[in-house]
Amino acid sequence: MEDKDVVLRVEDLHTYFHTTRGTVRALNGVSYTVPKGKVLGVVGESGCGKSVTSLAVMQLVPRPGRIEQGKIWFSTARRGSAGWVEITALERHSDEMHQIRGNEISMIFQEPMTSLNPVYTVGDQIAEAILLHQGVDKGEARQRVIDILTEVNMPNPERIVDNYPHELSGGMRQRAMIAMALSCTPTMLIADEPTTALDVTTEAQILDLMRELQGDIGMSIMFITHNLGVIAQMADEVVIMYLGRIVESAPIDDLFFDTKHPYTVALLGSIPHVGSRTKDRLASIRGMVPDPYSTVPGCPFHPRCDRYMRGICEKEMPGETMVAPKHMVRCYLYS
Amino acid sequence: MAEVTSDNILLEVKELKKHFPITGGLMRKVVGYVKAVDGVSFYIKEGETLGLVGESGCGKTTCGRTVLRLLEPTAGEVVFDDPDLGKVHIENLDQRQMKVVRPKMQIIFQDPFSSLDPRMTLERIVSEPLVINNMLHGQALRNRVAELLELVGMRAEYMTRYPHAFSGGQRQRIGIARALALNPKLIICDEPVSALDVSIQAQVLNLLEDLQAKFGLTYLFIAHDLSVVEHISDRVAVMYVGFLVEMAETNELYYYPKHPYTEALMAAIPKPNPRMRTQPIKLPGEVASPANPPSGCYFHPRCRYAQAVCSQTRPILRDVGNEHWVACHLAEELHLAGLEEQQVL
User: Fold this and answer.
1) Taking CB atoms and an 8 Å limit, are A281 and B209 in contact across chains?
2) Does A210 touch chain B (CB under 8 A)?
């Protein structure tokens, strides 16, 4: 492990869920890196495995899910032991994992309503991580909570500290979640659809805030979303996922202006482009995402692909082709 | 987007109000009202799509349901141009008269998972409106259900299955088939695509457009996604805390907004183009509560252009020319920024 510009490296990750109805292959050999101090966008539709990817990094894949194969390396900068840690080699409940989870890598979830505990005050919940990881006393922790709430532009932080989640609006709850995630100044932040439940004006403010904080702290962010508008605004690099595989990865500009994979092309064509003044029909993708219990031979997208080549695409998963430096695509059109 | 063929107004809503009482204390006395819809006026022309946008809790859904009298209006008028009965005041009709008008006004719900009864087969779901209104029986009924399912892109053989066997997009198609069963004139689409993935969302939007062209349907399209609304609507109305603040032809509203709230909405849209940065306008404070709205214009505490008059008098929705309706005292003086035109990717 040498690459200095990378904070997280995932290699050939397979995560399966063994259920009574069969095996769901949520991740089928996923490899990617999160660049240091930048934002990696992870895009895909529901069921493509984008959330499982992030849970695997935190060692939080729920049962009966298991990491079957592959490695996750994280570049830690703490406690003198700077260097690469193999997360997949750590026990879920080990001390090392506790040190990383919530401290060096933290996470923001989609639903600000359900991810805060309704019976504790906002201040207590944010202070929990600080008390656990930073070794400070209660008074100091409270002061740090107020500082962080101020940093995320929470109105009246001195009052909000003692409020319960139900007293806050959706946007304020998401600010509280961000404050909680930032409380230990993590090296990397995983944001799983952080603005999906929010209104457009609140969403814009939260995204603005995240970008600002990212610049200030120099934190790396893994930003998971299905919204291509949000990705265009937030990400530096993007991976596109389909059925547990990465089909294309590229710097943000290449992804939008030099799109390669037919799935990415179709995704971009299926969103209404606000401000284009065109009223053309949307390019929809025919069919739908296959049943998670089934396995599609060859390229997982071939049954829905407009450029499907009989006798090739259904045989084997196409390998990774580099069409430009940092621009990878898995499609026979380019190999 | 279909060509609007006539200037015939199909639905006119005047000063519509829906207030929900808040009860409190030992005697459950009414201590106040949540003014979910508070004096909304708009019209929809035959064959067009009117988009109704606004943030969560602004009263869009309540407005749609009150128009159909799924909720009883507190005050106001809803005039529907029924093809058989002529102009009828929906708010005055009794149960029996309502039953005559209802088939012409249908609704598609937001959540395709809770709007279909899990214990009914597709056949029963889609045929129910026809059975209730005593329209068809036996084989004719089954044929009509098959026809409706095929119309929305589903196979007729699926008729015997239950909703759990279908994905979100397919369920939404079933909901559309049910809404079409009685050949309605007006369909209220209440966030029909917001629960769907982008690729499926495009399929359903295309289907709605095709059906509109085929049957000359009129849509009231309620949504919070401004890109979707821009795509599908001929005209757009913007709602804020139970009140319409602006209504105009789609491009006019998006590129030349005249209400400061619309301006803020347009600036907040995340543009799907990495070379154009979204520059949101910071709105101070939170959305006003419909139970305790501020004085004057409801938006004035968050408005960066607010003047003394804004906190005193509530502006009315007025036509400032070219069917551009605005509820702002300063509409003529302000020069607001709309969406910037951008290249198509």
Assistant:
1) yes
2) no
pLDDT tens profile A223-238: 999 899 999 999 999 9
Instruction: Return the DSSP state at B316.
Output: P
For residue range A244-279, what is the model confidence (pLDDT) as tens digits? Answer: 999 999 999 999 999 999 999 999 988 888 776 666
Two structure tokens written together for A112: 């600000």
DSSP string, A218-280: T-EEEEEES-HHHHHHH-SEEEEEETTEEEEEEEHHHHHHS--SHHHHHHHHTS--TTS---P
Mean pLDDT of the residues in chain A = 88
Q: What are the φ and ψ backbone dihedral angles of B235, each rounded to 5 degrees?
A: -130, 155
**Is A289 within 8 Å of B197 when comparing Cβ atoms?**
yes
Q: Do residues A272 and A283 lie in contact, with contact meaning Cβ atoms separated by under 8 Å?
A: no
| Residues whose CB falls within 8 Å of the CB of residue A159, separated by 6 or more in sequence, listed in order | none
- Complex ipTM value: 0.84
Judged by CB atoms closer than 8 Å, whether chains meet at B274 and A233 is answered as yes
Nearest CB to B230; choose among A200, A272, A282:
A272
Which strands, in side-by-side order, build the sheet including B29-45?
B29-45, B9-24, B75-82, B86-89
Give me the pLDDT at residue B1, please.
44
Distances (CA, A) of A189 to A19, A37, A222, A320: 30, 10, 6, 27
User: Which member of A203, A252, A282 has the closest CB to residue B274?
Assistant: A252
For chain A, residues with pLDDT lower than 50 are: 1
Q: How far is B65 from chain A (nearest CA, A)?
A: 21
DSSP-derived 3-state class of residue B151: helix
